[in-house]
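Two proteins, back to back. First:
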Amino acid sequence: MSMYQTIANYSAKFFKKNVLFKYGFNLSPMYRRSTGRITFVSEDLMTVTMKLPISYKNRNYVNTIFGGSMFSAADPIPMVQLMNLLGSDYVVWDKSAEVFFKRPAKETLYAEFQYTLEELEEIKAKVTQQNELEIVKTTNLTNKDQSKIFCQVKKTIYIADKAYFKQKRARKRA
């Protein structure tokens, strides 16, 4: 279990999960360096919103938001969100990512990360049938009114039944 999971498990005795998610991200050094900030987490964790203000910390050589800041602000959220939604019977890993820079960003960017109940039920059903699967989640970083897309991040996420995953790893070691 990671340091972040240990802190979250202990803190869950005192705070709601959505509050821990928001402030856990915003206070963690690994996320703070992205310059992104989680602005909202729904109580059911199905919706997370983020903003990435342009500042001296993330401006690049041509005075726009550095592409690495755009990617790193969006990168961890879909996986950690799904881990919390599915629970401890599943293994969830980032498998790959694609980043598409659509236009230079000279303003604050916003993103929404969303899972639906149907999506979660489909994931659980497929894992029950196949033991493991991969999904692709796409996140757009936009202006405030969502009329312009500045960056698109496509994350491939691996999901497996925890017992199956442990057996699979044991077979590989043997």
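And the second protein:
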Amino acid sequence: MDYTTQMDAARKGIVTPQMKIVAEKEKMPMEKLLKLVGEGKIAIPANKLHTSLSPEAVGQDCRTKINVNLGVSPEHNNHEEELEKVQNAINMKAEAIMDLSNFGKTREFRRKLVGMSTAMIGTVPMYDAVGMLDKDLKDITADEFFSVVEQHAEDGNSLRYEP
């Protein structure tokens, strides 16, 4: 592979399989899509480890996407119910799922979510860091936080950074 991201590919004039799918879904000429992705005006969140993904585009001149928020919390820590919500979201054609999990060790849940979802997956690593590292937020170092970000990327997520 001669590129690292969809933006990198677009800047090099490489049409990826994901771009072909997106151009068809968006009814957008490939030349326009390449230009807008290369300029950063459209994002195609397509982590190569998210093998069940049906690619989508977000940004200028793109259709509005349906997003579903879910995740485990101290008040509701039932992974199977949350995975049922994932399946329902997929069945209802959601294009994006935001995992807002903020309780406990959520990696197993996240991996199942990514494995079964055709939708883009976003996560909030800061939410997960407290449970994963078992520390108060104020005690988490930058290196520890970035190790959580790295883990989310390794799990196949399309990350959203929340400062």
